[in-house]
Every structure is written in C-alpha cells, then in structure tokens.
Write a structure and sequence with these properties.
Mean pLDDT: 90
Helix content: 40-55%
Strand order of the largest sheet: 1-2
Low-confidence stretches: none
Largest sheet: 2 strands, antiparallel
Shape: globular
Structural class: mainly alpha
Number of helices: 3
Strand content: 5-15%
Order of helices and strands: EHHEH
Radius of gyration: 12 Å
Length: about 70
C-alpha cells in the first residue's frame, strides 16, 4: 500500500519500479549492486529514492542500451 505521506523530490519503491519499468525485486537488486541508494531517513519498511538518482540511473541505462 502506498504511503499517504509525500516527500517532494522522492519516490517510493513502487513508484521507482514503475518509473524504471522493473519489479520491486529489480529495485532491491539495484540497491544490492550499489546502482541505486535509498534516501537518508528511509525506514526499512518504507524506502524512498531520490528522483534525481532514479533519473540519473535511467539515463545511464539508456546510454548503455544505445551503445
């Protein structure tokens, strides 16, 4: 269930997965590989990801796909 509390400039794990077109497990794998970092202040049960970081990862991914 989506949190009702909003943090401007941040995405929930569900929103991050949707923005990148991957699953929640895919988001967890990106975190484990160090390609994406949960925002400071995230709790273990409610992870937040910086919109800027998510966009930067998506741009890097697009560059790799184009090469």
């Amino acid at each position: 269930m989506e949190s009702q509390l909003l943090r401007p400039g941040y995405l929930t794990a569900h929103q991050t997965a949707a923005a990148l077109g991957i699953t929640l497990d895919g988001v967890r794998q990106l975190v484990r590989r160090g390609e994406l970092t949960a925002a400071p202040g995230s709790s273990p049960r409610q992870r937040w990801y910086s919109l800027t970081d998510v966009q930067a990862y998506d741009a890097r991914r697009a560059l790799r796909a184009a090469a």
